[in-house]
Fold:
Amino acid sequence: MPYRFKPAAHYLLVRVSDGHVLGRVLRGVYQASDSEPCNLAPYTGIVERTEGSLRIRLRAGGYLVIEGPEPAEGERLQLRQIPRPAGERHLDDPDVYRAWRDLAVYMGEQALPGHDLLRLRVSAAPYDPCPACNDHYGFAEGCTICNGLGFVPEVVI
Structure:
């Protein structure tokens, strides 16, 4: 199953073999753990999704592969989602999130301008699809996991 990377979420980059934390990914920007925290620069790399892979393009050159073809040295890496800071701005009201999400679906179906920007805003919200009903119209109404909403608070692994 492909890894579901959310660009607005926060992650730790972990080496699978020994659990060593290599760094953090905050809003798609990777910073090695030996780097000093900062807002914009310097950064260590940028997370990017290409066909069939999720990887970090390093600033110094090269890539760290998270999902996709195994690296030559065979080192497996994993992103582990961590909670976002409480004061961070995002779409956190469930009713507003549902309205925006429904609007994004409608705008996409009608090919209206601004659909991509709205979809990006909705994808940054701290919610995940319900693991039981996946917001399927026929199953969401009676779902006990999400109480009929079709989504649940962001699952932090």
